[in-house]
Specification:
Helix content is 47%, strand content 11%. It is α/β, with parallel strands linked by helices and 520 residues long. The protein is globular, with a radius of gyration of 26 Å. The mean pLDDT is 83.
Length: 520
């Protein structure tokens, strides 16, 4: 039995290669009009990188049937080179063909960027002619369902949902549009998030890489809005740290939101089938091992059933393997022009002066290209001394947030003046679990353990310590922690940088205990 590609997979391979042969010394067009101008000619072949059946070139028995016929195992070639790689498989190994595929997709992506005309959004569902008239039945829709009105309603819901995220911790005040670039491609022009949105039909799987604080989440939210507005497709932002603490599937988590309440999974599956649903998943690196396996299994099932489904994943690095081989995009550091725009938006002329002072300070020169740290520097009180290290900037950042949170009597009563120790232990527990979200019972146990330690050290009375739930509620009220809602309650820090900062105090305490010969 051969594991052949589906028609939609072949079409997608041709699109991603720009309808040109992927052989690096060929690149000839593989489709065009026939001589009479009535029909079309195709000389392209969706070739298997590892063979579709046993005995074929580069056959890999470790692959499943689904993996053999998945788009990641395909390469688009002209007929001559498709024959050549199969006639002499010793000369064309799997790694070589994978490299050709990546190079061809990068060439196609750059050509698409260079030649985009900026067309308007699509209207109605982009149905395949082979779908026929039974598409409503296939997705359990009413026979008289108006598909144009359905898509318009889903687009409106997606737009409303995206706007709602602007009112949450995920959106950065005074955000600007950052520049993007293909990973490993330093010699071509960078592009914008709107340019990226326009390519998500041909390149439906992306990974966005960026170091902490460089604007991944804001960029993803901007991408969602650009896909909705520019491409006219439904995009949905899914914070994976929140999703991982709940039992719901990815599609179910979308439908839980107020904007999408009138719709069902069948509606989202119809969009996935037509290639007009893009899942924008934030924080792959923040998932623990079990959550990553769960997410990977679900994504593999969705990709198998809906090859045109769009998937964008953000991560800090590729050391935590993403579930598919995708086009990788990196976020560029802030250049001087963008730094000045941020400085002017936050502080006016005073901000630009502060920016120049930071650029002239050796410990800060590199940090001002990172949005998180630039914002922290610009929010320093007038007349304050500039910190000279990253740790100093992060300390200022945490202190600024504490001031915004207006630490009040309720916080002092709940933590007995020891919020730093409680937060440090919570941060350490989350870090040890390799996650940014702690389940409810783990968070309560951490607070209780901290209170017990403080009582043993004589810093508080064990009898006066508030219940852990009261402590957690107060930390949430003061905007230091965030509680995820749903059946499985979890807690995470308002910002991942907070978690890392507070965890450093727990590490410092442990080192001091070791130096003193104490047992932890």
């Amino acid at each position: 039995m051969r594991d052949d590609f589906s028609r939609s997979t072949k079409d997608q391979l041709a699109k991603q290669a720009g309808h040109r042969c992927a052989h690096p010394h060929c690149g000839k067009p593989t489709s065009g009009a026939d001589e009479g101008g009535i029909g079309s000619i195709n000389i392209g072949v969706a070739a298997h990188i590892t063979a579709a059946s046993a005995g074929g070139p580069r056959y890999d028995p470790a692959l499943t049937s689904e993996q053999r016929k998945h788009i990641s195992n395909g390469i688009w070639l002209c007929q001559d080179h498709a024959h050549a790689i199969d006639a002499d498989d010793n000369g064309f190994d799997t790694e070589t063909l994978q490299a050709w595929k990546r190079q061809a997709e990068a060439r196609s992506f750059r050509a698409l960027m260079a030649g985009m005309a900026g067309g308007g959004p699509q209207h109605g569902l982009l149905l395949d002619p082979n779908d026929g008239v039974d598409i409503r039945h296939r997705f359990n829709l009413a026979e008289d369902e108006d598909l144009v009105a359905l898509k318009a309603g889903l687009l409106a819901a997606a737009s409303e949902d995206a706007t709602a995220f602007r009112r949450t911790r995920y959106w950065t005040e005074h955000s600007i549009e950052l520049e993007l670039r293909l990973k490993g491609d330093e010699h071509t022009a960078s592009f914008s998030v709107h340019d990226l949105a326009a390519t998500t039909e041909a390149f439906n799987e992306f990974v966005i890489l960026s170091a902490p604080g460089t604007g991944k989440t804001t960029t993803l939210l901007q991408l969602v809005e650009a896909i909705i507005d520019r491409r006219g497709s439904v995009a949905s932002f899914i914070p994976l740290d929140d999703w991982s603490s709940q039992p719901r599937s990815l599609l179910e988590s979308i439908l839980e939101r107020q904007a999408f309440r009138p719709y069902s999974q069948d509606h989202l599956r119809l969009l996935a089938h037509t290639g007009e649903l893009i899942l924008v998943l934030d924080g792959w690196n923040q998932l623990d091992g079990a959550s990553r396996r769960r997410a990977r299994n679900e994504l593999e099932g969705l990709r198998r059933d809906y090859p045109k489904l769009g998937i964008v994943i953000s991560s800090r690095s590729l050391s935590v393997a993403v579930p598919f081989a995708a086009t990788v995009v990196v976020i560029e550091p802030l250049d001087h022009i963008k730094q000045r725009r941020v400085a002017s938006a936050l502080r006016g002329a005073d901000g630009e002066t502060l920016l120049e002072e930071a650029r002239a300070t050796s410990g800060l020169r590199e940090l001002v290209s990172v949005p998180l740290f630039l914002n922290a520097i610009l929010r320093l009180s007038p007349g304050s001394r500039l910190p000279t290290t990253k740790e100093g900037v992060l300390a200022a950042f945490v202190e600024q947030h504490s001031q915004i949170a207006n630490r009040n009597e309720a916080l002092r009563n709940a933590t007995l003046g020891h919020e730093k120790e409680i937060l440090a232990d919570l941060a350490l527990a989350a870090t040890r679990a390799a996650n940014t979200s702690l389940p409810d019972h783990n968070a309560r146990a951490s607070v209780q353990a901290t209170q017990r330690r403080l009582a043993d050290e004589g810093q508080i009375s064990a009898y006066s310590a508030p219940q852990p739930l009261m402590v957690l509620d107060t930390l949430i009220a003061e905007h230091l922690l965030v509680r995820s809602s749903g059946e499985s309650v979890g807690y995470s820090f308002q910002h991942q940088q907070f978690q890392e900062w507070y965890a450093s105090f727990a590490v410092e305490h442990a080192m001091r205990c070791m130096a003193a010969g104490d047992h932890l």
